[in-house]
Write a structure and sequence with these properties.
It is a multi-pass membrane protein. This protein has helices at about 1-10, 15-30, 30-40, 50-70, 80-95, 100-120, 120-125, 130-135, 145-165, 190-205, 210-240, 255-275, 280-285, 300-325, 445-455, 475-485, 485-495; strands at about 170, 175, 180, 325, 335, 345, 360-370, 370-380, 400-410, 415-425, 425-435, 440, 460-470, 495-500, 505. With about 500 residues, the chain is of the alpha+beta class. The relative contact order is 0.09.
């Protein structure tokens, strides 16, 4: 009877399921580059997000099951379309500025608002937990890795001291007589933490637990996952010590970790069962009569209109990105300075900023404010993920060699900054700024905003512009001279010309 009833439900709502599947497929194709970035993370086995596909399949399964169990007719909501447009803008900003996490976070929210617009607010609210479950597959949890890694190190250090094992802890490294054991980032336990909490969320949703019991399940899952990881790392340290670092587990212990995690699932399931047994929903769900069959209705005009409107709005952001994406390369740019004959091109440089991924480096040499100076431009003709101007690993110099002196106010109120760098015993005074689409800024946030705006002007380039002065001693004399001649500094930056000669557009 149950299979027959389920078959009847599927037939009665086949058009809703097919439509929903079509919208999901359309969203995957439209936002394919971002989905592919998630695939790249999920496909890395034995890493923190290798459970991503499993969560995605579970969410899709429960979504379609929720459609089958939902008894009301679809009530399209055109207000939700505004959410699709807003989140499309967020995705566009993330993709255009290589802020990948924003683009990835926008994807499940876009799907949720699409469901909201097609099936109505009541159904959308009922599947909010599925949206939250999917968050465990988004790589935003790496911020927890240093914290979990530090706690794991502290716990292992405490355990080692109890046994009296001679070990010296240097950060995350453990020096034992036979060698060195490092508690790497992968040993922080983030993967077990995410898997356990995702399972707790799925269990709570499946059994319709209230908020209090859902939080309790999450706390239990977190505790068991963390303790299990501590035990795992502690055992590995003991094995390394007692086997003089010769045991096979010291070279390959991924399977050992998952076996131990599976063992930890047994008490976790037991506690979840006890939590569920205390819920009044457990008994009421068993006594609840089967829901009445829904009437087979053909799609209404409002439903069809909402589907078409959703697809149109989903396509807006990818189309905007495609339409305005100019493919820049070094050959399509002219970089020059028109400061008379004072500055001349000079290729040999004794020092350059510790930036990576730029497409070309330009330099000029000449007198500025009576001092010998070198103007350097690091050009990013086309920014991409891992090849961008604003990046955590892009530094003027390592922090211990760099002293920031604050803003430098030129006559034209151009946003410039000043710093002193020590390289090989040589002090150098720097005046620098970011140039994006002809606009200067020293703020990384402002640089991202300018990068986004430059998308609509088909000026994809970005550049770091640095004026370098070699100092005689500690750069105080050079600072005084430069502060006395702000107009000359202003001329250098304002007359720098980065011109797009022939930016090519995908649609032309």
């Amino acid at each position: 009877m149950h299979i027959r009833a389920l078959t009847s439900e599927i037939k009665s709502k086949a058009w809703v399921l097919v439509t929903l599947l079509g919208v999901v497929a359309f969203a995957v194709l439209a936002y394919w580059p971002t989905w592919q970035s998630l695939h790249n993370v999920w496909a890395m086995l034995d890493q923190s997000y290798s459970h991503g596909y499993l969560i995605a399949l579970v969410v899709v399964y429960w979504l379609f099951k929720a459609v089958l169990q939902y008894q009301a007719s679809p009530k399209p909501s055109y207000v939700a379309v505004l959410g699709i447009i807003a989140l499309g803008g967020l995705w566009l900003f993330g993709e255009a500025t290589q802020t990948l996490l924003l683009a990835q976070l926008a994807l499940p929210c876009l799907l949720w608002f699409s469901i909201f617009a097609i099936l109505g607010p009541r159904f959308a609210v009922s599947v909010v937990p599925l949206l939250l479950i999917f968050i465990f597959a988004i790589p935003l949890w790496d911020i927890l890795t240093p914290i979990l890694r530090g706690i794991t190190t502290y716990v292992v250090q405490f355990g080692v001291s109890i046994l009296g094992i001679p070990a010296y802890f240097d950060g995350f490294k453990i020096e034992v007589p036979a060698g060195v054991i490092e508690i790497a980032s992968s040993c922080a336990g983030l993967n077990y933490f995410l898997m356990a909490n995702a399972f707790a969320a799925i269990y709570s949703y499946q059994n319709q637990l209230d908020a209090k019991r859902t939080i309790l399940c999450a706390l239990v899952a977190t505790a068991i996952a963390l303790v299990g990881n501590w035990v795992r790392v502690y055992i590995l340290v003991l094995v390394g010590y007692y086997s003089n670092m010769t045991h096979s587990l010291m070279h390959s212990h991924a399977n050992f970790g998952w076996i131990l995690f599976g063992v930890c699932m047994v008490p976790m399931l037991y506690v979840f069962g006890r939590i569920y047994a205390t819920s009044t929903q457990a008994q009421s769900a068993a006594d609840e009569p089967s829901p009445p069959k829904t009437q087979v209705d053909l799609p209404s005009k409002a439903f069809i209109t909402s589907v078409l409107l959703v697809c149109f709005c989903l396509a807006l952001a990818p189309a905007t990105l495609h339409w305005n994406s100019a493919k820049g390369d070094v050959a399509s740019y002219e970089v020059s300075t028109i400061n008379g004959a004072k500055l001349s091109q000079y290729s040999a440089v004794a020092w350059r900023p510790a930036f990576k991924g730029y497409d070309a480096h330009y330099s000029w040499l000449g007198p500025v404010a009576g001092l010998q100076a070198q103007l350097q431009v690091l050009l990013y003709a086309q920014q991409a993920q891992g090849k961008e101007l604003i990046y955590y690993d892009n530094l003027l110099a390592p922090a211990h060699n760099l002293k920031k002196l604050g803003d430098f106010n030129a006559n034209g109120n151009m946003p410039l900054a000043m710093a002193v760098v020590n390289s090989g015993g040589q002090q150098r005074l720097l005046i620098w700024s970011y140039n994006l689409g002809g606009k200067y800024t020293t703020s990384p946030i402002s640089a991202k905003l300018l990068q986004f705006l430059s998308l609509f002007h088909q000026q994809p380039y970005a550049a770091l512009v640095v004026l370098v002065f070699d100092c005689q001693t500690n750069c105080t004399q050079e600072q005084a001279v430069i502060h006395a001649s702000p107009s000359e500094i202003d001329v250098i930056f304002s007359q720098l010309n980065i011109k797009a000669l022939a930016p090519s557009n995908k649609w032309k």
